[in-house]
Amino acid sequence: MDNLYLLMIIALAFLAIADLVVGVSNDAVNFLNSAIGSKAISFKTIMIVASLGIAIGAIFSSGMMEVARKGIFHPGEFMFAEIMVIFMAVMITDILLLDFFNTVGMPTSTTVSIVFELLGASVAMSFIKIASSGGDYIDIYNYINTSKATEIIMGILLSVVIAFSVGALVQYVSRILLSFDFRKKAKVFGALFGGIALTAITYFILIKGLKGATFVSDDVIVYIQNNTSTIIIGSLVLWTLLSYIISVVLKYDVYKLIIIVGTFALALAFAGNDLVNFIGVPIAAWQSFEAWQASGIPANEFSMTVLAEKVPTPTILLFVAGMVMVLTLWFSKKARYVTQTEINLSREGESKERFQPNFLSRGIVRSAMMLSAVTTALMPKALQEKIDAKFKKPVIALSKDKTFEMPAFDMVRASVNLMVAGVLISLATSYKLPLSTTYVTFMVAMGSSLADRAWGAESAVYRVAGVLNVIGGWFFTAIIAFVSAAVIVALINIHVPSMVAILLLIAILLLVRNYISHNKKSKEIRAEDSLRKAESSSIQGVIEESADNISNVAKRSNKIYTHIIDGLAKQDLELLKKNKKGVGKLSDEIDELRDHIFYFIKNLDEASVGASNLYINILGYLQDMAQSLEYLNKISHKHIHNNHKKLKYNQIKELKEIDLELQKLLSATKAAFETRSFERIGVIFASKQELLDMVSQKIEKQIARTRTEESSPKNTTLYFTFLLETKDFINATMNLLELYYNEHDSTVTPAKLEVQ
């Protein structure tokens, strides 16, 4: 049995490394977003600053490990064998839960996940102990630290409301004082803002970042706590003077300094305080194993009172953990995917919206608009105009470079995000309130976005829906963490050796599956046949650039149409379901190109208006083609799904004849556009009437069959609808070819936008 527990310790060590990887991928969002979103400093500099913060914070984080040892349950009530089952269940649950959230790109709280996993696992083990001893289930209070669980739940609710409200208020005041033209303000304003922000961040480092660090003595902590006011006032004066000198004498942007120091501070606090979420449980298990081995007492009789004592964590383990976190930060693609979610939700202006609006987000936006209208009506007009002037955004000429590479938000908002998050986390720590770092940083960013008027009429419902999705995910984390850990404890308790092996194998398989799935999704985003935005400023330039799009649409349409007919012929629901994803992806890409029209037209001068007309018409015909394919797939799937009579042999044969002709048309179209042989379009276009006549003949044959032999109304309706929609698809395709044929001029060199 001794070997079993040694193997469990080894397994927990590997799980700890894996948990560090998925944990950092999730929590990188906390300290990277402000710097990345504002583009104040280069990405390499951001990563170096964050890496230093993580490395230093990890090495001095030993004092925070007690949470996993005694913060949720009373360790003296459990035996070593029971504690090992609890810890194993917690780690398996944690790694799978966090990896799931990372894969879907949603930030969640590692603090809440580990706390509720410990709570769920210890509650399950407590019930098992009570049931086996024939005790009363009310005795659960002897095993569980219920007050801590209550604090965590209150912390969730408080962090959501307070962080959002304070973030919105501070950003609103900051914007009114500094406006969007903050660089044109007197240097004293920037210096004062820098002094306040850097003082807040300094306070954050002293109170939150150094709390629990082994190299800081208790006397120093007590001194800081007793002289907080003096430290704050002194820091404010010092940082304000330094900010003024830096901006006036050294000519360095003080806002960049705030973002650098703030990023370092949050990374330091993250590693120093959240490291327990990833390795606290394995270290507690290892220390329990050492104590049990030294005792010589059987595993099911050795009480874990040792966990109630304060035992420092070896520095070498903290160093290794810090290095794993730093490497993950640099190489994890999932970390950047999670980070992108928050940046897009707080982005200034329009972006590709990931979340779909729902009745709740629409209701909230509608209520907010009504409240805004009432407030505006009550406010004096002169005051309203002054406030509006402060929120007037500078006009930036849109070009390829500036449209898509502009910061998500400016440095004032980035500084506010870092400053407010730091202060709130510091205050919560000083009052012993367990606010989650993830919740605070996310909600501050959302509040500052709202106050900064980043959520306009065209994006508000999507952004609010996104925020609601993320908040819902937080509560989902708590519930699933509790239930999953409890279930895994119950399963392991059936037969420890075999169930641990099975659950570890399942965990590995799920992690590999998620990794493959995420890689596949990333490759789809970068797929060669995905559609590209036009950037040219002339008709011939648009023709040249969009040729690849037409070639790709022809190739994919060919495949989709053939699959629809094959699905109908074989009554294959799975093929049609898969086909639905393909046509849906095509439609989404065309919609994205249409969303780009505004920026495309903005890039043109008056002499290039013809290019915009051509581009709009091209997208219109592409959308018509995609809609026809979408409708054909939909009616075919519905017919089979409802178990209606399958199409007759003659009908399938006729559809395959049309399919073969369309294959020739679309293959020729693909080849012509792929090779830029636009002169061949005329030959392809000449087959238009022949194709349309062919479809008309099929319609006439079906009319004759219906009058004499057809007996299925559903069958007849499907066939007629299919043929008519196919005619629409052919017309859209031919109209597109005709457009290119008429507009292309081989004697003109395509013009491009100049890179500005």
From TrEMBL:
GO terms for molecular function: phosphate transmembrane transporter activity. GO terms for biological process: phosphate ion transmembrane transport. The chain crosses the membrane at residues 6-29, 41-60, 80-101, 113-132, 152-174, 186-207, 227-247, 254-272, 311-331, 467-492, 498-516. It is found in: Membrane. Its main location: membrane. The keyword Transmembrane applies. The keyword Cell membrane does not apply. InterPro entries: Phos_transporter. One of its GO terms (cellular component) is membrane. Keywords: Membrane, Phosphate transport, Transmembrane, Transmembrane helix, Transport. It is a multi-pass membrane protein. Belongs to the inorganic phosphate transporter (PiT) (TC 2.A.20) family. This is Phosphate transporter. It comes from Arenibacter echinorum.
